[in-house]
Amino acid sequence: MREVALWASGAALAFFVTAGAFLLLANLATGSSGENLSPDAGPGKSGPALDLDLNKGQLAFLEAGTGQKLRLAVQNGGAQDFSDVNLTLEVSSGNTAIPETRYYRHTLRTLETGETRNVEFVLDLSESESTNAAVPSAQSEPQKLIEIRATTPQGVSAVRTAIIPL
Question: pTM to 2 decimals?
């Protein structure tokens, strides 16, 4: 009995010593919170250089079918003009068992500093024939995922994603 108590207390002591060593090492690896602060950005304007604005009200009125119009605003909030802003809109099913994806593309040749441009896409949100045959009719509330990416040759990008119940 005495040996079991001695063994248990030795194991507990070893555990606490090891845990204390790990805590000590973790504290040594991190500096104080004051050292990790970044300097103030200064009086300059903060925010993304390229922004995409989706109208949530317009998203709510999208329906399953062809000819659905989606307008988005592309804004240059940075300090430099952009050339060749490439927009890619990807529409895929909310059901991961359906691999169908549709792509739409548009390019803005120039987007000046502070400028906002509206871009309209005409989408096909209908289900394909093969999708209708592969998916059981008991599926609850079909959805479409819409992802919009904007990229520039200068390396600036923006992404917006929306889930549309149909």
Answer: 0.65
**Residue 44's pLDDT is what?**
46
- pLDDT of residue 16 exceeding 80, the answer is yes
What are the boundaries of each domain within the chain?
Answer: 1-32, 50-131+140-165
- Assign domain 50-131+140-165 to its CATH architecture: Sandwich (2.60)
3-state secondary structure the chain: CHHHHHHHHHHHHHHHHHHHHHHHHHHHHCCCCCCCCCCCCCCCCCCCCEEEEECHHHHHCCCCCCCEEEEEEEEECCCCCEEEEEEEEEEEECCCCCCCEEEEEEEEEEECCCCEEEEEEEECCCCCHHHHHHCCCCCCCCEEEEEEEEECCCCCEEEEEEEEEC
